[in-house]
Fold this sequence. Notes:
The chain is α/β, with parallel strands linked by helices. The protein has 2 domains: 3-102, no CATH class; 109-290, 3-Layer(aba) Sandwich (Rossmann fold). It is built from 12 helices and 9 strands. A 9-stranded mixed sheet has the order 1-2-6-5-4-3-7-8-9, sandwiched between helices. The longest helix is centred in the middle third of the chain and has 16 residues, at 127-142. The termini are far apart. 45% of the residues are buried. The model has no long low-confidence stretch (mean pLDDT 93).
Amino acid sequence: MNMLTENTEQLLFKIAHCPFLSYKEKWVLANEQIGNLAERTQSAVPLRRLTDKKKASFLRYESKLPIMQLNEAYHSKGIVYHSIFSPAYPEQLKHIFAPPLVLFLKGNESNLKLPMIGVVGARECSPYSKEVLQAILPTLIEEKVGIVSGLAKGVDGLAHQNTISLGGRTIGVVGTGLDYYYPSENKELQMRMERTQLVLSEYPLGTPPRRHHFPERNRIISGLSKGVVVIEAKSRSGSLITARIALEEGRDVFAVPGAITNPLSSGCHELLKDGALLCTDGNSILNEWIQ
Length: 291
């Protein structure tokens, strides 16, 4: 690694840790500081400028950031990180809007090499979600498709658990630093995935759960995936946000139909009316990809 690359990596590491910049503002700052970052990474980025006040605040912040201690903390917790310039950074993720400048990972990075399908759905899901996952996942796992989800309550947790029980590979994308376990009921699952699967985040150590992190997290689920399947979702749910991000990024969007009287299927029916692909089993996804 040459000195220029070392300096660039360190700058991105510092920007990623800055708590008062949004992910879009981090991109704007990095683009200004490094120059032609968007072209060099072939990424779509926000077209805006950062205020002089925020630039000055960042300069004060970065001058006090304890880089050595942070690196020791990541190492002690078994966490690695890759900037967008790293060969280990997932190629497909680079091409979403404002991709993470730095990814923090814990677990088996080889999971990133598989073709992935994002699985999302309601936190307060019904038993129907479990039946649907049991119908969809075995075929996908048999064909070496990995499962990406958000380690949330409901469909996310079920998707991870079922994938593991079937001997498949799964990635959890969280909306916190990797020293947090949220929701608490999935702590054991997340710890297991850190040992045998993969958990990743764009948020540095010490970042607690915040409401706006979860829509931001959704773009990474979509970005890692070739397509996204929505299992159960109400109208205006977070799962629909993920689906619409996926459409904007050119990913396939699949939706599982349900009873017309079930509010948890209303979001899926909206997606189907808007042109999402019908998903009734694993082959619904595989056949679309083979075409």
